[in-house]
Protein 1
Amino acid sequence: MRLRLLAGLFSLLVVLGLPACAGTAAGKDTLYRDLGGEQGIDRLVETFIRKVGRDERILPYFARASVSHFREGFTTHLCQVSGGPCTYDGDSMPDIHTGMQIDEADFNRVVELLVEAMEDNGIAYPVQNRLLARLAPLRGEIIHI
Amino acid sequence: MRAMRRLLSSGAIALLLSATPCLAGGKLLATPGVSQFEGAAGGGLVPWAQLAGYATENEVAFSGYCTRVDVDDFTLDTCGAQFNLFDRLELSYAEQRLDVQPLTLELEQKIAGFKLRLAGDLVYSPYPQVSLGVMHKQLDDAAVPYALGAQDDTGTDIYLAVSKLHLGVLAGYNLLWNITARRTEANEAGLLGYGAADASPQLLLEGSVAVLLDKRFALGVEYREKPDNLGLGEDDWRDLFVAWFPNKHLSVTAAWVDLGRIAAIEGQDGWYLSIMGYY
C-alpha cells in the first residue's frame, strides 16, 4: 500500500517537473496572445482600474497615484510579463510599493480584482492562472515594505 | 434520525453564518480547503498544512462544519469548529459518533487539536507551506474497543503536513498537493481505541492531490495509511472528492470513500458529505 502511495507521489513530481521546463521557452508568446494581445491587455487594465476605483480597501493605496501613469506602467508590465513585445522600464516593484505597508490580505484583494477584471473580459480560467503564476513571484517585492 | 437532525441543524447554522458579514477574508477563495473529519483544516480524510478559514497574518477566523460518512455497515457523524489566529495557529475541536449498525452500537469520541504553521505560504512561497499538528482524542465508552484488544481509550496523534498550490501548472489549471506524516497508535482513527498489546506507535503517510476546475470547484483524491494494531485487517483509506466554494462563507464537499475493512467487516465504501461555514 505504501508503495502505491509513493509511486503516486513520484508521478506527481514528474508531472510537476515537466511543465516547469516546457513552459518557459514556448509558453510566453502564447500567453500574450491568449490575453488578447495589445488590445486585450488595454481592455483588461481599463477594467482593473475601474474596479480599483470602486474598492474601499484598495483605492486608498492609489490616493497619490496618477491614473495615466499607472495605466501605462501596468499595461507595459503585463505585456512584458506575458511575453509580449514590450520592455517595462518604469520604477521597480520595491520603489513603487515601499512605505505603503501592503499586507497579505491587501495583496490578495488586488489579485481578486484582477481576476474579476479578467472574467469580465472573457479571459478563460486557465489563461488567468497562467498570468497569475507569472505575477505571484513579485509578491515579495510588494508586501510588507 | 437524531444524527440527521443534528446534521441538518448544523447545516442551517452554517448557512446562517454564510449570510453574515465577516472580518477575516484575506485568503483567496478555496485556498484554506475544507475540514477533515477529525476537525483540522484539510481535505476530507487528511489534514493539510493550511489553517482553517480565510484569516491572514492580521486576521482571526472562526469556522464550523458537520460531516456524515455513510458506508455499508457504519455511519460516522462529526461536527466541529476551528479558530484560526493570524494564520499562525489553528485550534480545533470535534465530536464524532460512529453508528455500528450490525451491533446497534454507538461509539463516541472527542478530539481537541491544534496546528501551527511553521513556514511557507501555500500559494506564494517558492517552497511549500509546512505545519505541525496535534490531535488529542478521547473515547467516551471504550468497552467494545477494549474487548477487541485496544489498550487505551485516549491517544494523541502528531503530524507534519506539507502542502503546495501550483498556479496554472496543469495546462493552466491550479494543482494542490499535500503530504502528511502522522505518528499514531489509533485504531480506526481512534474510534476503536488506541494501541494493542504488542503494538507501538507508527509513522504513517497520508496524501492528497486536487485540481481546481475553476475558482469555486476542486476535484481531488486522498489516501491515508492506517495501522493494524488489533489484527483485524484494518485497511488504508481513500476517497475521491469534489468541493464547492460558492463564496468565502460556505463550502460543501461530497466524496466517495473506500474505508476497506473495519472491525473485520469487509467492503466498507460509501459516500461522504460535509458542509462548512466560515466566519
Note: Chain A touches chain B at residues 1-2, 4-6, 8-9, 12, 15-16, 19-20, 103-105, 108-109, 111-112, 115, 124-127, 129-130, 132-133, 136-137, 139-140 (CB under 8 Å).
Protein 2
Amino acid sequence: MKTTSPVTDMTRGIWQENPVLVQLLGLCPALAVTNSVANSLAMGLATTFVLLGSSVLVSSARRLVPTEVRISTYILIIATFVTVADMVLQAVVPDIHKELGAFVALIVVNCLILSRQEAFASKRPVGRAALDALGYSIGFTIALVIMGSVRELLGSGTLLGWPVFGPSFEPWVIMILPPGGFLTLGLLLVFLSWWQERSVRSVVDDAAATGRKVA
Amino acid sequence: MAELVWIFVSAALVNNFTLALFLGLCPFFGVSREVGTAVRMGAANLFVLVITSFVAWGLNTYVLGSAPYLRLISFIVVIASLVQIVEMAIKKLSPALFRQLGIFLPLITTNCAILGLAIFQTNRGYGLVEGLVFALGAGAGLTLALVLMASLRETLDLADVPKVSRNMGLVLITAGALSLAFMGFAGLFSAE
C-alpha cells in the first residue's frame, strides 16, 4: 500500500484524478441532471453528503466488515445515506427534487462512491477517508457545475436563472436536451486532451531547443 | 394491448434508457468495442432487467406497503443478490462468456439501468404485466443502443481522426449524434 500525504489525499480527486473528467466515473448523473447550474449544484452537494457519510462510516467499520460481504455492506451504507439525502432534498428544495426525479435515488449506483469505498475508505483511517471523500466530491461537483454552466448558458441563455445574452439570443435548445449532455462532455474531453497534448509538446520543444534528448 | 405496445416502444425507442435517460452508461461505453460482446452484454442486461421488474413488483405488492422508505435499500439488496446468482450461473454455464464480460458482470448491480427500472416502474404504478413489458422494452433499447454504438466504434477505429479526440471524446460525441437521431422517435406518437 502506497503511503500518501494528507494533502495529496485531499487534492488528488479534485483535478489529477477528477472522477468525471479523468476517470469517467459517475457519468450517469453528470449527463442527466446538468441541464442547469442549480440542478448540477444540488446533485453535487447531495453526492458530497453521501460520499462523505459513507466513507467515514465504512472507514470506521473497516475492521468489523468481513471481506466476503464487504460490497453488499458498502451498498447498504450508501443506500441509507441516499435515502436520507432524498428526504432532505424533498423537504428543503421540493422544486429541484422534482426536477432531479429518480436521479437522487440513483446516487446509490454512482460508481464513483462505491469505487472510493473499495479503493480507499475500507483501508485507511477515518480522517484520511474523509479527506479523500471531500476531494473527490469537490472534483465531482466542479465537473458537474462546469457542464451545467455550459449547457444552461447555451441552452437557455441564462446562468443560475439570470438572463445573460439579452432578448436577441436564440437559445440552442439541443444543449439542454439529452444529446447536449453527450456533446458537451465529449467536447470538454477533447479540449482537455488537446490542452494536455499541448503542454507535453511544449516540454518536448523546450528540450529540443536546448539540445537535450527526450526519452 | 395498445397500452402495452406503447410502453414497449416508449421504453425501447422514444425514452431509450441509454440515449435519452442516461441509464446504463458504464456498459454502454465500457463494453461497446465489439459487436459480439455488445450483444452478449445487452442480453445479460435484458435478463437481469426482467428479473428485476418481477422482483420489484413482488416487493412493492407484498412487502413494502407499510414501509415505503425502505424501498431503495430493499431493491438494491435483492437485486445485488440476484446478480450474484446470475453471475455464478454464467460462470458455470459459459466460462468463455464470463471471461469476455469480465469486470462488467458484477457491475451490472451498480448499473443505473437496473435500479432505474425498478424506481420508474414503482413511480408509474405499473402492474406485473406492464412492468415485464417495460423491462423487455428497456432491455431491447439498451441492447439496440449498445450494438449500434459498437458497430460505430468498429468503423471509427479505422477512421483517421485528430489525435486529441481519439479516445472517449470521440465516443461521447458519437453518442451525442446517436442520441440526436433517437430524438426523432419523439414524434412517433404525437402525430396520431
Note: The interface with chain A takes residues 19-26, 29, 69, 72-73, 76-77, 80-81, 106-107, 109-112, 114-116, 119-120, 123, 163-165, 167-177, 179-180, 183 of chain B (CB under 8 Å).
